[in-house]
Amino acid sequence: MDASPNGIEFIVYKGSPDRRVVQGITHRDHLNGDEVLIRITHSSLCGSDEHYLGVDMCLGHEGAGVVEALGADVKTLKVGENVAFGYQRSCCGSCVRCLGSLETFCPSRGFYGFDEMDIGSMASHIVFRESFVYKIPPSISNEAASALMCGGATVFNVLDMFSVKPTERVGIVGVGGLGHLAIKFAAKWGCEVIVFSATESKEEEVISWGATEFHVTKDRDTFEHVTPIDHLMVTTSQQLRWPLYLSIMASFGTIYPLTFAEGDLKVPYLPFMTSGLRIQASIVAPRVICNRMLSFAAFHGIGAAIQKYKLDVIGIEQAMDDLREGKIRYKAVLSAGDQDEAREPL
């Protein structure tokens, strides 16, 4: 990063038309009043990052780092603090959604991939608005925090926003970046956690994270002896065989699609209607829930299972290749090489 009378310049890693990662430079003339300059120490990789690999934009939206400079109006942060940031960058602050702590649905929201395309977590630095920067609890390393800022926030949002009770049964379809965190959070939330996966070899690992049941879905036409599910988190990007899952949903149960899949969402009409089921759209968490997620993870010692890569062109491309080939178990974290002084990962 170069700070000079001409402004602030820093390195960014971008997509390109041939889907190769390229190194570039972005610039800010100065920090506006509520802006924070963060030196990035870690960036986690999300499956949605690959959607933007062919776009001339800075990649990454799950980051952690150290505050290096503050705009004149910043009040809650200090230089040298460890902080994290996620998918959302801004909102209007005054609409009915923002006033109700639902700024993720603000009509003027700023999201990764839609707003300020020249900044992201795969960079040497980032400039972010103070109100969308999160202090990292002392017991969580920057490395661990970066891996929670999208996947962790997305699955925790279901538990918190939709008032999942600890007496309810939570089903989780898929054991990947989202799914493995959903298991850990739901187990510590106090729920019975029922996992559905096509990979039989993951059972022992899943049970060690707190799951109470594990069901293999490959070549399965029915589930036998499965007590009805109250909440079903769909964390796989594959379209589900809906009749298989509707048959085990409790009446008035809720299904949460948490990833994007090709094609339309088509659900059999009769079993859906006769059981009074709901499909609830859910995206990343608003700020109040992001903060609660970090506090909950710190208190319960929840962290992602990670694989480490270097935060440079070669490291990003290797992580992308491994993600494509299904080799990551379960989150890729890119490191700038900084050390978290006296802070051990979860």
From TrEMBL:
The keyword Zinc applies. It comes from the Eukaryota. InterPro entries: ADH-like_C, ADH-like_N, ADH_Zn_CS, CAD-like, D-isomer_DH_CS1, ER, GroES-like_sf, NAD(P)-bd_dom_sf. SUPFAM superfamilies: GroES-like, NAD(P)-binding Rossmann-fold domains. Residues 15-334 form the Enoyl reductase (ER) domain. Signal peptide: none annotated. Keywords: Metal-binding, Oxidoreductase, Zinc. Gene3D superfamilies: Medium-chain alcohol dehydrogenases, catalytic domain, NAD(P)-binding Rossmann-like Domain. Its cofactor is Zn(2+). GO terms for molecular function: oxidoreductase activity, acting on the CH-OH group of donors, NAD or NADP as acceptor; zinc ion binding. Belongs to the zinc-containing alcohol dehydrogenase family. This is Enoyl reductase (ER) domain-containing protein. It comes from Alectoria fallacina. The lineage of its organism: Eukaryota, Fungi, Dikarya, Ascomycota, Pezizomycotina.
